[in-house]
TrEMBL record:
Residues 72-315 form the Chorismate-utilising enzyme C-terminal domain. PANTHER family: AMINOBENZOATE/ANTHRANILATE SYNTHASE, AMINODEOXYCHORISMATE SYNTHASE COMPONENT 1. The keyword Transferase applies. Keywords: Aminotransferase, Transferase. Its EC number is 2.6.1.85. GO terms for biological process: L-tryptophan biosynthetic process. It is an enzyme of class 2 (transferase). InterPro entries: ADC_synthase (IPR005801), Anth_synth_I-like (IPR019999), Chorismate_C (IPR015890). It comes from Sulfurovum indicum. Gene3D superfamilies: Anthranilate synthase. This is Aminodeoxychorismate synthase component I. One of its GO terms (molecular function) is 4-amino-4-deoxychorismate synthase activity.
Length: 320
């Protein structure tokens, strides 16, 4: 359905306290909204303990390989972004690429076995197994958890290194400021309640440390009837665009050579009282029997091309 139809439907379902699932593409041109009691049989989700499928452990080995963009091509695109930063058009931009992968697992099998806080399987078209919350709403409090900063957990003093890295600190501060401003559009009493805490993420055979913050705001009474409007104002997520958001999104449209589609969009569940949602990263889609794994990272004036290229590849994994 169209953007306006989708957000209007979210408002209506929220007003009547009807539980539903929603999926919003990165550019908001595609929305899927469906009550949970009428949910299509080929859609499966997990948002922490909220899920509609049984857990199942992997019992067989699997193959996995990737064919990432070459470093020279990555560096050329990154240089275009650095020029935009030097010109003052952006300060932080999340650059992403689509990487062809090969595995003997199906999308459904990857989804079923993947270990992640947030997961979505959509009709055999795409899956995500995301570590990143977008927003949660409990009572009249909305909370967001921007995630910026990644390091291999097995590097000596990894936690100290990531928290003391000036580039990573600057990137994280910019996203926290952006998300504070975004929450200020829909709520009041904005607070950064937990600044730069560490999550440990399973990344295939590796473990990654990722840095997040918790930011909260108070929503107006009867926010449920405005839920579509709230989500429209907050998207696309600042953590996967950059800042300032409007000009940065315009640059992304020019420098990325593919359609993000639902990748870096959001999905979530409203259960009639509370809302949970996730940023759709760690994302695989299937096109013409070819699996594409979409991944990326934030670019700032202090970014090093080799390090950013490594982060792009490190995020291509199956957490099985």
């Amino acid at each position: 359905m169209s953007s306006q139809e989708g957000f209007d439907k979210i408002n209506r379902l929220g007003k009547t306290r009807t539980p539903f699932l929603f999926i919003i593409s990165y550019d908001k041109n595609k929305l899927f909204v469906q009550p949970l009691d009428k949910l299509d049989k080929d859609i499966f989700y997990k948002l922490e303990e909220w899920r509609n499928y049984p857990a199942k452990k992997r019992e067989k080995a699997f193959t996995f390989s990737l064919s990432p963009v070459n470093f020279t091509q990555y560096q050329n695109v990154m240089e275009k972004i650095l020029e935009e930063i030097r010109s003052g058009n952006t300060y932080l931009l999340n650059l992403t690429f689509a990487t062809p992968i090969k595995t003997d697992l199906t999308l459904k099998e990857i989804f079923t076995y993947a270990r992640a806080r947030y997961k979505l399987y959509f009709k055999g078209e795409f899956i995500c197994f995301s570590p990143e919350c977008f927003v949660e709403i409990e009572g009249d409090t909305i909370a967001t958890y921007p995630m910026k900063g990644t390091i291999d957990a097995h590097i000596p003093d990894a936690k100290k290194r990531i928290l003391s890295n000036e580039k990573e600190m600057a990137e994280h501060v910019m996203i926290v400021d952006l998300m504070r401003n975004d929450l200020g559009i829909v709520g009041t009493d904005i607070k950064v309640e937990d600044f730069r805490y560490i999550d440990r993420i399973k990344a295939g055979k590796k473990e990654l440390l990722q840095v997040s913050s918790r930011i909260t705001a108070k929503l107006p009474e009867e926010w449920q009837a405005q839920l579509g409007k709230i989500l429209d104002k907050l998207t696309p997520a600042g953590s996967i665009t950059g800042t300032p958001k409007k000009s940065t999104v315009s640059i992304i449209d020019r420098v990325e050579n593919y359609d993000r589609g639902f990748y870096t969009g959001i999905f979530g569940i409203f259960n009639g009282k509370s809302l949970r949602s996730s940023v759709m990263i760690r994302f695989i889609e299937e096109q013409n029997s070819q699996m594409l794994y979409k991944s990326g990272g934030g670019i700032t004036i202090d970014s090093d091309a080799q390090s950013e290229y490594k982060e792009l590849k490190d995020k291509i994994y199956l957490p099985l």
